[in-house]
């Protein structure tokens, strides 16, 4: 009997921690950590100071997890009415709000302590600003008030490369700001295909996503326009000699691929290609940042390949 009780308690505890883990949106945090890491590695031509890299990644990731948990807390009533989100820990009743709030605040506090004491105060300030921008300004206000919510709210989500750069150098520079610009322009054509697919759910909960307020056809046109703008913006690292010809070639191919996906989406009826475009957008950003790293270290080894 005692053995069964211990086993049951262990199972319950494991399930509880799994719910907390789901609050952090781990896949999103992983992408944030990756783009922050790229910012770190690009910040210096030589070896990166490992303690700042390690504690910077930990602090930035914990802050991102805190913002994700706060997003769950604020959106729980809305999430309960949407098929895609109804099984999240809060709307499904697997966790309650007080525990989730305590968890989110705890992550934020630990993050700020790590970044302030073990990295540098500037990174802590910028990371906290990004957290507030996403969890409060976007989730609480922009998401519910304007069809341009993804555009302006995406600024907070575009910050990780800058945060990573600052964690290593302790300063802001033009190079990481270009990386921020790339992620900023990428965000609308990344998210709007998903919004097209889920437009009826967003309409049901009165969230003014672009396909709800302006229709699917207009949204597809905007995705195509942003894909062209993204292609142009992605070439800027080469123009300022931040990257070399390897990155330039890869950025052109990936960018044209995004334009092609957006064109197919625009020509296809309804939302049939929406998720394919959404999926390509994730592959695009991951490969683009991988190219930045590959080019960075290749140019270090063979300077003649630089811009």
Can you give a write-up of this model?
This protein folds into two domains: 12-172, UbiA prenyltransferase (Tetracycline Repressor, domain 2, Orthogonal Bundle), CATH 1.10.357; 173-307. Helices cover 79% and strands 0% of the residues. The protein is built from 15 helices and no strands. Residues 1-14 have low confidence and may be disordered.
Tell me, briefly, the overall form: flat
Quickly name the level 1 CATH class of the largest domain.
Mainly Alpha
CATH topology of the largest domain: Tetracycline Repressor, domain 2
- Count the E strands: 0
Q: What string gives the helices and strands in order?
A: HHHHHHHHHHHHHHH
Helix content: over 70%
Q: Rg from C-alpha positions?
A: 21 Å
Oligomer: single chain
Largest sheet: none
Termini distance? 71 Å
Identify low-pLDDT runs: 1-14
Number of helices: 15
Question: How many structural domains?
Answer: 2
Record the SSE blueprint.
Layout: H1 2-23, H2 26-42, H3 50-74, H4 76-80, H5 97-119, H6 121-145, H7 149-157, H8 160-169, H9 174-197, H10 199-204, H11 210-213, H12 216-233, H13 236-239, H14 245-267, H15 274-301
Descriptive key words:
307 residues; mainly alpha; Tetracycline Repressor, domain 2; 15 helices; flat; disordered N terminus
Would you kindly provide a brief summary of this structure?
The chain is mainly α and 307 residues long.
């Amino acid at each position: 009997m005692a053995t069964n009780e211990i086993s049951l308690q262990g199972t319950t505890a494991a399930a509880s921690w799994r719910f907390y883990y789901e609050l952090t949106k781990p896949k999103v945090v992983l992408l944030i950590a990756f783009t922050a890491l790229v910012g770190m590695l690009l910040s210096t031509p030589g070896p990166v100071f490992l303690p700042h890299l390690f504690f910077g990644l930990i602090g930035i990731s914990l802050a991102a997890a805190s913002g994700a948990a706060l997003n769950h807390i604020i959106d729980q009533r809305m999430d309960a009415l949407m098929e895609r989100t109804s099984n999240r820990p809060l709307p499904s009743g697997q966790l309650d709000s007080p525990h989730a709030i305590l968890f989110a605040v705890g992550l934020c506090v630990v993050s700020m302590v790590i970044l302030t004491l073990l990295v540098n105060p500037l990174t802590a300030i910028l990371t906290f600003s990004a957290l507030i921008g996403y969890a409060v300004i976007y989730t609480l206000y922009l998401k519910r008030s304007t069809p341009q919510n993804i555009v302006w709210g995406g600024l907070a989500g575009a910050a990780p490369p800058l945060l990573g750069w600052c964690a290593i150098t302790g300063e802001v520079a033009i190079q990481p700001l270009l990386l921020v610009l790339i992620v900023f322009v990428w965000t609308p054509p990344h998210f709007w295909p998903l919004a097209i697919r889920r437009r009826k759910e967003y309409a049901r909960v009165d969230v003014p996503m672009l396909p709800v307020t302006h229709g699917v056809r207009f949204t597809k046109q905007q995705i195509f326009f942003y894909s062209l703008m993204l292609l142009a913006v992605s070439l800027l690292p080469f123009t300022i000699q931040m990257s070399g010809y390897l990155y330039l070639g890869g950025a052109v191919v990936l960018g044209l691929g995004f334009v092609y996906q957006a064109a197919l989406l625009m020509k296809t009826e309804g939302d049939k290609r929406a998720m394919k475009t959404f999926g390509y957008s994730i592959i695009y950003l991951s490969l683009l940042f991988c190219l930045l790293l590959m080019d960075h270290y290749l140019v270090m080894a063979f300077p003649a390949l630089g811009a």
